[in-house]
User: Which sequence fits this backbone?
């Protein structure tokens, strides 16, 4: 039995979860109203105005001028999606997440009826659990998801993945739509062929033939369909008949480690806070070195008297070194507003990758370096001061490459002129 959890208009739901003031506003996400780039995501109210994925922000403003425009908080959407996965993994070891919540999703499904509501979608394998027991099991899963994530899931339940996905797409939020195994073909019969992942030309030709539903497609002889559309139509044909043709493909879980500190009284002293996050960085570095992993992404969170603040960075090169972690965290810490006391803080490292070996150079070629330095000095002597500069390393592990070094002018040596 397969359960499919659908969270329609996911990005807008995340924004509203973070800010109560947005709950009554139609949302257009991705930039300003005058920009020509495509809208990233939007809320249901904006969709009802005729807005669809791929439209420009300008056109969204024309169709829905009352929309509230805001930038896309992509890392935040990813973190909330990870929260959902954490809840779902308590109910199944096999969870397949699908990122359909924005106009730029990699999957072809975002161009079908599945992606019309820009959902976050997750499929779970419930093994051989009978439908009656699975319905009760999934009902409890939905209740826990609402309690822990404050989101409204629409859940489909069926014997195969495609039918469960269609059921989730047509179910109402906070509702479960189970489909009996023997009724799958009947359930799919009246659904649009746009639930199938087919090319635009194939859709156009099917409509010219009067085929607009899965049931109409399923009643045609497969040999005739292959003659018209080629062998690729067979997969769509079998899906329309309610057959099981693919297994779930769970994505590997993203590893993460967190260290947190809570204080008895609010802390305002920056030196104390710096010492605390340096200690957490050392602890995480020791864990990375012990497990032979490197961290690519860091999140620093402060829980202040006036609310929570968070900064994050993704490193160009992952690291397990305490010195580099401290440097990066210090850079993140500098972005915080410390006008109120800090009640607690946490440091999270994620996107952990196995550490790779690196060949060290035991005998650097100092002769070549010296020759290059003399050549540079000769050029400076020939062309004068101010023509050449030399980079000098300042901070090896600074997160911004341009801040890791400074440029020093190569001085003119009169003796070489």
Assistant:
């Amino acid at each position: 039995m397969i359960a499919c959890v659908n969270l329609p208009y996911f990005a807008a739901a995340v924004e509203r979860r973070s800010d109560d003031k947005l709950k009554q506003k139609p949302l257009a996400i991705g930039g300003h109203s005058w920009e020509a780039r495509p809208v990233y995501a939007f809320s249901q109210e904006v969709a009802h105005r005729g807005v669809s994925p791929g439209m420009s922000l300008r056109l969204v403003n024309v169709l829905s001028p009352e929309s509230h425009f805001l930038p896309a908080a992509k890392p935040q959407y990813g973190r909330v999606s990870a929260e959902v996965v954490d809840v779902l993994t308590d109910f199944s070891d096999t969870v397949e997440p699908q990122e359909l919540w924005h106009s730029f999703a990699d999957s072809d499904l975002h161009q079908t009826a599945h992606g019309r509501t820009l959902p976050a979608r997750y499929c779970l394998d419930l093994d051989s659990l009978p439908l009656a027991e699975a319905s009760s099991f999934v009902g409890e899963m939905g209740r826990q998801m609402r309690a822990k994530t404050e989101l409204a899931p629409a859940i489909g339940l069926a014997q195969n993945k495609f039918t469960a996905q269609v059921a989730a797409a047509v179910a109402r939020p906070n509702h479960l739509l189970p489909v009996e195994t023997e009724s799958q073909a009947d359930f799919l019969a009246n659904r649009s062929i746009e639930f199938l992942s087919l090319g635009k030309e194939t859709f156009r030709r099917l409509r010219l033939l009067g085929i607009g539903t899965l049931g109409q497609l399923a009643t045609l002889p497969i040999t005739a369909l292959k003659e018209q559309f080629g062998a690729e139509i067979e997969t769509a044909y079998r899906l329309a008949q309610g057959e099981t043709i693919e297994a779930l493909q769970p994505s590997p879980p993203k590893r993460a480690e967190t260290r947190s500190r809570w204080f008895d009284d609010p802390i305002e002293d920056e030196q104390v806070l710096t010492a605390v996050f340096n200690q957490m960085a050392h602890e995480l570095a020791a864990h990375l070195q012990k497990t032979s992993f490197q961290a690519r992404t860091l999140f620093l969170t402060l829980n202040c008297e006036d609310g929570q603040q968070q900064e994050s960075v993704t490193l160009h090169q992952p690291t397990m070194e305490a010195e580099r972690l401290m440097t990066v965290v210090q850079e993140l810490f500098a972005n915080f507003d410390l006008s109120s006391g800090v009640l607690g803080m946490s440091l999270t490292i994620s996107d952990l990758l196995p550490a790779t070996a690196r060949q060290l150079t035991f005998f650097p070629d100092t002769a070549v370096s010296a020759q290059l330095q003399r050549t540079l000095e000769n050029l400076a002597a020939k062309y004068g001061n101010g023509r050449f500069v030399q980079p000098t390393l300042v901070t090896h592990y600074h997160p911004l490459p341009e801040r890791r070094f400074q440029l020093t002018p190569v001085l003119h040596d009169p003796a070489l002129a």
